[in-house]
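INFO  loader      accepted 1 record
INFO  loader      residues=700
INFO  predictor   begin
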Amino acid sequence: MVNNTNKNIDESSGKMDDPTQNMGEPVQTVDKSAANQERDESGRGMTEPEPNQIKAASESNQDMDEDEDIDIGFHFEDTSSIEVPKLLIDQVLGQEHAVEVVKKAASQRRHIMMIGTPGTGKSLLAKAMAELLPKEELKDILVYPNLEDLNNPKIREVPAGKGREIVMAHKMEARKKVQARNMLMMLFVVGIVIYSYFVAQLLWGIIAGIMILMLTRQFLPKEEMMIPKLAVSNYDKEHAPYIDATGAHAGALLGDVRHDPFQSGGLETPAHDRVEAGDIHKAHKGVLFIDEINTLKLESQQSLLTALQEKEYPITGQSERSSGALVKTEPVPCDFIMVSAGNLDAVQKMHPALRSRIKGYGYEVYMRDSMEDTPENRKKLVRFVAQEVVRDGHIPHFDEGAVKEVIREARRRAGRKGHLTLKLRDLGGLVRVAGDIARSEGAPLTTAEHVLAAKRIARSIEQQLADSYLEQRKDYESFLREGSAVGRVNGLAVMGGDSGIVLPIVSEVTPAISGAEGRIIATGKLKTIAKEAVQNVSAVIKNMTGTDITRHDVHIQFVGTYEGVEGDSASVSIATAVISAIEKIPVDQTVAMTGSLSVRGDVLPVGGVTYKIEAAAQAGLKKVIIPKANEADVLIEKAYRKKIQIIPVSSIAEVMEHSLVGPKKNSIIEKLRCITKLSFDIPEVTPASVQAKNLLGCRN
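INFO  predictor   done
INFO  writer      dumping tokens
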């Protein structure tokens, strides 16, 4: 899906991961002077840049040079000298609030729900919580046959490790009884055979012996049927159990009873031996982790709620057609701590009673997706690289240069100036790919060159698709890269949150079909937010152009958006295309743009600006217009710095100034500037209590 998202700075940071191309460094490449040009109708000629614009550009270049090196705060040869904490809770990065909550929840046995972007450490925190629980409380669970009702097996709870001893003892006793019985039967059969020999009936004696052996095997009670089954074993475990039940079906989560095709003739399996413990029972006295909990069926969520409340849940067959449907055990202990996780939509789609149970008897935590870019946090990322190397166990350690390249990528993936990403699963993937490259080359250490190579290899599907998309657009000239055109704009969008594409937008004004009023018609499989954005833009156009469009239909086409468009970051592009079509003023086709638009003409921040800028540069465009509020979020790759000029704007008038060409643009720009500079005086409101004091002549 083509995604034109308009999000605030914190939200957009969770949408921008891009391990493509050459290694990028954080840089604010804003060049206002080069973009402040005015063209005549042929598109040639320019005015001199203003002094303050030249100053802004020089300051930007200076910032870029200062950001070239990364200050970690200490020197090291490679990550083998970095100490990795033994406890998982000490290995969690950037989630101090979540760590504190986990420690409290572990000591008080509270449930937790973690909501946040994937890859921010939710499962690691759940594993860390299991390490904090006391090992002394662990239990084994045994299933015994019930001689009074074979379909209702009994349950026994014993200390950890004791269940294994009990089962072994029962097996030894059963083996002794079987051996003694077999010995007696063999003596009896041998006696019959000897007797038949002396009475000259040897053949009948052998037949009688075989029949006796078969009958005794068939009808005598089997000692193995009395051996209990060890359903849950915590023998020789160092920590409390951690069970990941993500995506588990009802039988795996709640327990099940195996189907027995041989239910008679002495071949049937005892009911208690067919009982299989579920994840809720295996997590007894430990942690049950369920990611994307909203994907569980409502019936499973209701059963999970019962298990949380009662701390025990009987095991029965989950299939009505199976012979296990007749079997139901006594309540099985399942006193676990549940750690549920998911994205924001998980909260809406969870069973309300289940969420109420977690909220009333536990904690809700929102996971951060970025942290401030400080020397202390950079040290944490150094430790993170060392942790990933040790955890993998098959890749060489990273030298200091390689670690700095990883930190640069963490800056870039954060999508915010002065922040580092906390989506460490994806960043860990980059570390492992770089280590694999180093190992394939036989290098003793992973270097910066290996990290750069890993970025080129470890591209997401969306990034590969975006590259193919751009190449196809170039072949078929779906967007223009030079000259000018009326009503045509090169918009920008993101795919998958970490890949930018050029989104051509075309507008045309025609006589209204309806005699009552003109319409604004947008095509391109627009979704809800995109449609609302078009409506907002229509209000802006009516107020700002001064043109009576009631007798015209305005057509807006998103070219090539076969999978739909969502978001309102194309608002600026739509407004530019429509105004160009109405006023018949050409748009510079070397310019691409992105930004949301308020009804007063203010350009608002959007998400994914870094990837949109890189897409424009890769497409061969020369300039890109972005919201002024996103200026600090620009962290483009080094390879694109000299290919594209970045123009931050704050109003629609500035957009027109940098995108329209020809002398006719000046009038519309002045009109837009007058409208966007309108201000309203807000009267000062005096509190009623102060007014009363003034009237009464009171003083403080």
